[in-house]
Amino acid sequence: MKKSLVGAMLFVAVGIGPLLSHDFWLIPNAFHVARNADIVVLGRTSSTFPTTLSAVTPDRIASARLIGANSSEDILKLDVEGNSLRLAHRPQLTGQALVTARVHPRSIPESPESFRRYLTLEGAPEALERYEREGLLPTDSIVRRYAKYAKTLIEIGGRGPRAFDRVADHPLEFVPLTDPAAVRAGGAVRFRLTLFGEPLPGARGHASVADSMDAETAHDDATFEAGTNGEFTVAITSGGIWNVRALYILPAPAGSAADWDVHWATFVWRTEG
Questions:
Q1: Which residues of 146-173 are buried (b: 16+ CB within 10 A; e: fewer)?
Q2: pTM
Q3: Which residues of the chain fall short of a pLDDT of 70?
Q4: Do the beta carbons of residue 147 and residue 103 sit within 8 Å?
Q5: Structure letter (DSSP) for residue 60
Q6: Residue 198 Cα distances to 170, 228, 253, angstroms
């Protein structure tokens, strides 16, 4: 196994076609729940928001948490419902809260040709061309390792303390800088994308909206590119269930038994029309 010595980071957009790897979203059955009521959140896996093709099994979840403004709780009730992971929990906290999940990494051995196809399908043909020109791509088998991180925003009871900007300490993470639940159609939501807790400049990804969690596809798909501080703005064109999504590819740390690490992140919220 020959490790590729790549000095530059690689950003790619998500959601380009049916042959791609799949995003992992958390979508609540209800974005507002009564105090002392159970919350149910579905983990959906697909290349088309908000559909699901297969369920992440509970054993693959490294952590699932409910994060409020001043406290957090572990979500322990995980099972499979159809083609979705199902998270259920009766919260003790009230107010706005994040539901978060982190999927254990998996490793995939592949050939140089397969890795080249992967870069192309994930929307990085320019990087592929540059690395080939500079002789930095691997010439024998490699190991690509990937992990996924998801967040969604809910309200428990009446309006309470805000938690939209709490962090889950995911390696790749969307952190809202404005409260997505407070923004209506015609407004905008500001985000920061971070890598290992630091702003990720130049990061690229997608945002889109679905009319309901049962929709077959999203609409108003838009791309974003973060500024030097990792920040970007999503224009809210309509009410519905919104998502932002991105992935980030970088050489894996030395001694990690992988050559490349791929981090996927999503954030889901509801905007009223």
A1: bbbbbbbbbbbbeebebbbebebebbbb
A2: 0.89
A3: 1-21, 122-128, 130-131, 136
A4: yes
A5: G
A6: 11, 11, 17
